[in-house]
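Lecture notes, structural biology module. Today: joint structure prediction for complexes of two components.
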Amino acid sequence: MEDNLLFDAIERYRNGQMDENEKLFFEELKKNNPEIDQVAAEHSFILAELESMSEQKRLMHTLNEVENKLMNEGFISSNQGKGKAKIIYLWTRYRRTIAVAAAIAGVVSLSTASVISKYSESKKVAVITPLVDHKLHQFENKLNQIEHKLNDANSVPPAKPKFEANFRATGFLVDGKGYLITNAHVVDNARNLIVENKKGDQFAAEIVYSNSVTDLAILKITDTSFNKVTNLPYTFTKTGAELAEPIFTLGYPREEVVYGEGYLSAQSGYYGDTTSYQISISANPGNSGGPVIDQYGEVIGIISSKETNADGVVFAIKSKNIYSALKEIKKDKDITIKTPTVNTLKGLDRVKQIKKLEDFIYKVKGN
Amino acid sequence: MILVKGLAAHDAECIETIYRDNFATIKGFIIKNNGYTDDALDVFQEAMIVLFEKAKSGSFTLSCQLQTYLYSICRRLWLKKLQKQKLYNPSIEIIEEIVPVDDEIEYHEKKTNDFLFMENALKKIGEPCKSLLEAFYLEKKSMPEIAVSFGYTNSDNAKTQKYKCLVRLKKIFFAQIKNRD
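The predicted structure, tokenised, for the full assembly:
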């Protein structure tokens, strides 16, 4: 462990955290011990390298922001290049304008949404649909029958009594110890709950918290076969999200995980509900409880419902509500649930992001 | 010079001004020489990094106009790229004023190379080492924070782990440098 102390000393020396005496002593030590001096030099080099790397990353981030701003203003726009294939040129041009197009689309959908909500206000009927798939049992039962037949044919007795779910929605891990987030409307009337990951492993779960006002519920996996996972790749944003920000989701509108992308279209939800966003994304029964993630891998919300009379008008509960829910759980039940703090999705392309996070998105089933 | 200092301090406004004053010229040059706006953006960004590295070195003074300096750097970077793609066209026009920028380009290339080695080494040490070191050195998170998010019982444990990771990183990094030399 000697080296450990030495490293620590080198770091403090570099950061100017040593007092005068210590500094003198350390410099003396280096002078009299070429080995230590060598280690210190190497270590300093690595640290300097890491530091300048971190700096350059920050700089590139700022540069990109400035570029985006100028591009949105139209200061930077695409001009035709010389003498190359037109298709490539068009593609480049298209890529560069897509941000603007998304922004315009956002504004358009914003204005339509206000019309719709006014319309429904006058009719005074609820026109939002929770996105839970209740048609499930028809298909499931058929599937089960087929499976049973297959099992009979192979004369393998089923290991467990088959769980017959009559709804399906989505949930995702908020803490690797086995805590999942989903909607309250998904689980409120359920007698039994199971969650299933992408591999098809099923675990029994129970409700730890459910709030029908915010429509958030937290489940805990109770099965002992569940192994704690570490390093959830996403974080939960504490601040808000911006209009027209590109977003994506993963969920289970089918038995298989489905990816969808869209954008944030309004800062408030149904009837001007400020605890949720309006997003434009394709969502179907079963998407309820799925995460809404921005391009940097931060969860900004949870899909909850969609407007029945309009296309592509989906509502998502803001992530801020998760933090208050966790506080309530801490207060009422003395359970500490820790949200992940390290985001490992930032800067990855979408395919890699999905690969990293799909294991943490679960199917929530029950009856 | 104020702008360059602003760049060194990550000042977004200064950076924006530099873009506004110079980007159009650079784009014109790139497009005239077989490139697209995207190429211009890439080259300009790289030139900004070169300028940033230079400004950080402290002793830097501009001996010519910022515009000339940026143009010279972008020109060199772009010609190098064209050469790599075998699209280099020796008849390229040199009527504009340029200043020698070989030193900074060389330094920048060495730096980029070192970063590549470092990225590589970080990749090779695997998880959770990679995330741990990145969280501490790149994202500047505190030890207690890291201990919590990586599930260590206390920050001393996290520190010990960080130390072990660093030793591995050092080994791989210097081995790569040795191989290159």
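Point to remember: Chain A touches chain B through 48 residues (CB under 8 Å).
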